[in-house]
Amino acid sequence: MNEFESRLKQAATVLETLRGAIGTVVVGQRMVVDQVLWVLCAGGHVLLEGAPGLGKTLLVRTLSQCMDLRFSRIQFTPDLMPSDVVGTNVLIMDAAQRAAGSMFQVQKGPIFGQLVLADEINRATPKTQSALLEAMAESAVTIAGVRHALDEPFCVLATENPIEMEGTYPLPEAQLDRFLLKVIVPNPTEDELCEVLARTTGRAVSPPKRVVAETDVLVLRQLCRDIAVAEPVLRYAARLVAASDPESKEAPELVKRSLRFGAGVRGAQSLVLAAKSVALMEGRAQVSFADISLVAKPCLRHRLIRSFEGEADGVTTDRVIDTLLTQVPTRPVHVQAEQVGRPS
Length: 344
What we know:
Elements: H1 3-23, H2 30-42, E1 46-49, H3 56-66, E2 71-75, H4 82-86, E3 87-91, H5 95-99, E4 104-108, E5 115-119, H6 126-129, H7 131-138, E6 140-143, E7 146-149, E8 155-160, H8 173-176, E9 181-184, H9 190-200, H10 214-226, H11 231-243, H12 253-258, E10 259-261, H13 264-281, H14 289-300, E11 305-306, H15 308-312, H16 317-327, H17 333-341
Parallel strand pairs: 1-8, 1-9, 2-5, 5-8
Antiparallel strand pairs: 3-4, 6-7, 10-11
């Protein structure tokens, strides 16, 4: 076993420990937890969508308790202003500071955390939602013309409720594209619900232990980038994204009928990065075709824009992705034909 493979096994052990620590508080939701960990390893941001009471905020808070990272929470409301998110310059009334020539001081907002919970992000106005764009894209914010870098690792975990539509502002496509994954939080099973009731109606559960340090997260992100991706796997990811374009000749009929726009370049990048995270969590040094298929829905569902006909027919983006996974071959058709015709 070489040094890189040894580091991969250590990383997989760290992630398994983190998953176990989260499980002491969060009941079930194994796939949701894994997808959040994919985002953490890939260095992206995640949008959690689910009905109230499914533990979205609890999951993010528990994750922060298990990691030695600064946690901050932004409760989005219609009257929230951009300065409430990023911060502002404050006039200093202290005489000593004014004598030193420093009359204004930067009052940093909650975006300066490392794990930032953007709770009910669709309740804020587009002006306030856009305050997150620079931070999510560049890990920096600008206050009064001065650029301030955010501490790494930096991750935004946003939540939204799909049930209540009144008084909400759906995220524009440009901002949705900033999220590496959109994770749908499912309802618990009967057994999971019974466990939730037992935990939440009894004595308070002690908080989980910190099991991951800041340096561990930085190492995980570096290792994730070092995971190898063979060219055929890269081309499969590219073909999936290309086939999601309704103008493409290779697009399935459902795509041409139901979509206005496909996933685009960021969709392909998210497929590869998330697939690398899957391989990292399993201690593998290479990405497989199955990894790309596994991450396709959370990576692409928020990047596919339905047409009027698709919305009228009730075609979901998840159904479109299922069609893509079924009809787009893992290898080009001409390559498969050559392999079939090759003598054994």
